[in-house]
Amino acid sequence: MSILSRLRCVTIDVTGTLIAYKGELGDYYCMAAKSVGLPCPDYKRMHEGFKSAYTDMAKHYPCFGHAAKMPNIVWWKSCVRDSFVKAGYDYDEETFEKVFRRIYSTFGSSAPYTLFPDSQPFLRWLRKEGVTVGIVSDAEYRYKDVILPALGLNQVYLSVFSPRVFVSLPVRNSVVTSLVEKLEWYRAVAVEDR
Description:
alpha/beta, Rossmann fold, DNA polymerase, domain 1, two-stranded antiparallel sheet, 10 helices, 12% strand, HAD-SF_hydro_IA_REG-2-like_cap, HAD-like_sf, HAD_sf, Haloacid dehalogenase-like hydrolase domain-containing protein 3
């Protein structure tokens, strides 16, 4: 008996597995700054500032602030502001608000993402073989509600986005296991980029 014939469910991570970012973070922060008449921030400093700010926010307010009942936009606004500050760019409130709105709306669309060429064929093949396909991700709600459908990935039968169920990546596998057990699926595989 082949492995595929015994497989009932495949869950797949999103970023780095089905989709990737186009360009660099600095591209989007530069466009946002230029849209309000500011010079481009240094790409390397912005990248390092973002990594640091994101790590801090994820540590203090995991799952995009879900447990603290922090609205998603507030979480990202803090993260983006800290990214700029850590990179050496501290804008007044009015200027920052304009820059932030541009960044937030860009990353809430499909514009900064690209679909890996084998993503849709792979998902179609799994469904054709009778395998239930799901997405399990720590991504925020805009992935499920806006970004994935805009990229043509809205034909998933099962999805768990951790901010909605309040789990972070280290315990995601237990969420998958729990989900599989609840649905009485005994043969499942999780696919991710790590």
